[in-house]
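debug: dumping io for the single-chain case to check the tokenizer round-trip. Nothing else runs in this session.
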Amino acid sequence: MVLVFLILGALFTSGLATVATSVLTWITTYFGWFYIMAATFFLVFVLWVMFSRFGNIRLGPDSSRPEFGTTAWFAMLFTAGMGIGLVFFGVSEPVGYNANPAHPNEVAANTSASASEAMNSTLFHWLFHPWAIYIVLGLALGYFCFRKGLPMRPASALYPLIGNRIYGWIGNLVDILAVFGTLFGLATSLGIGARQVNAGLTSLFGVPNIWWMQVIIVAVITGVAVLSVMLGIDKGIRRLSVINLWLAVALMVIVFLFGPRLYILTGMADFTGYYLQHLPQTSLYVANQQTDPNGFEFQQAWTLFYWGWWISWSPFVGMFIARISYGRTIRQFITGTLFAPVGASIVWFSVFGGAGLFYDNIRNAGLADEPAELTLFSLLNELPMPGIMAALLSVLTIVVVVLFFATSSDSGSLVVDMLTNGGDPHPIKLQRFFWAVTEGLVTIVLLMSAIGMQEGDADPLSTLQSASLVTGLPFAVVLIIICFGIVKALREEDQRVLVPGTTPPTRGGEGAVHVPPPGDVDQAKVRSGSSAGTAKESDSSSDSSDSGA
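debug: decoded output
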């Protein structure tokens, strides 16, 4: 099905753009309310689970401990979960909202009020809600795979509700939706990253800023991602993620030191407080097309796009953070994947978005007039530093985007490999190669959809947005069902697990499970094993086995 899409998309590029725009309008008009309510429901749900008695349960046997250190774990989940978008939208989104307020009749552009509203909308799109969406699937997969021995596939999260039918057409349909969501969600990010890399190369070296150059960029960086995913998590993805994180931090520190430090620090407190105060209101606000056309247009173009994007990314990020979170308790998992990235994102947007707002509102730099992919580079040129240093900083920005590009692609390839390999956490290398290349091809086709429409009639980003919204809609329903499956399974846990300081039996007692570390689950035995779906620890050199209750 993906290959058919690639062929048709390559042959009928303008038709793909037209269809994508029509579908985007239809979904945002009739299902916008559903996206808003679903995203808020996921946030409330994960907070409830974190503070509940279920927080002491481990994603694995009770004796298990984390597989990766905290720094490496955070680097991998953060670069996979946000990645390119932070660099692309870090400056452009706040200054864009500041110059074009969602309600121009109530808030004047380029004022302190519009700056507060701009940062509120930006933080709303990037903080608690997206990570809550990721956590729902990540928690379900980590729990059912590592604690119950089921395959690492989204369908496993439905086991408490449909039982062994997860191995039939229902489970396969859920996994197929996850594959498409991952591919098109990643294509959106990779297309955005290619545009920003192209813009940076144009400003530095004068290379053409056009679709075919972006295609070349996608092809080159896909090659880097292929190499990384072939090396595996520890040798490839982990090392690349850690390097990427430190380079991004270095870029942020330099911008802070040369930027309006006092404005950034005061804004960090002010903007965060404004966001938290208005969080309930913004979380439940649904604009009406008849009574609030400006708000509806803003929500259609931004909020609904983001919610669709995050939901379409949830199979990818959820499976990936589940895969690297073996041995952590549910409370540690939710705390680490919700509050740590949120804190880092607040600092990031306060530095880059705050600096952009300062230069636009106080220095009249006109950053909002620049194309989104050029905004960050324009900000670097505004900083009071020598020209050579600004150029070096632009090079560093390109490197960071490239590495975010590669870490997103290699992590996504690993997830699609697991999905299409029956939930095996260690898929074969040939399949890793195939899906890493396919992701690049999907991105190229979506970018090429604007060929022949370069005079302002279409933007490749609109096709990318449509792909995210279309794939995100059905999977949002799946995520809601998964929440009920999680609650049902957690309530059936041995009560002694839920009380700190007590140790349940490892075999023989009701609710007892014994699951080997990642990669040791014999999926064939799981499929033909007990109805509880627990794993059997196997040794290829021995006929003996130890089954859970």
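debug: round-trip ok. Strands lie at 536-538, 545-547.
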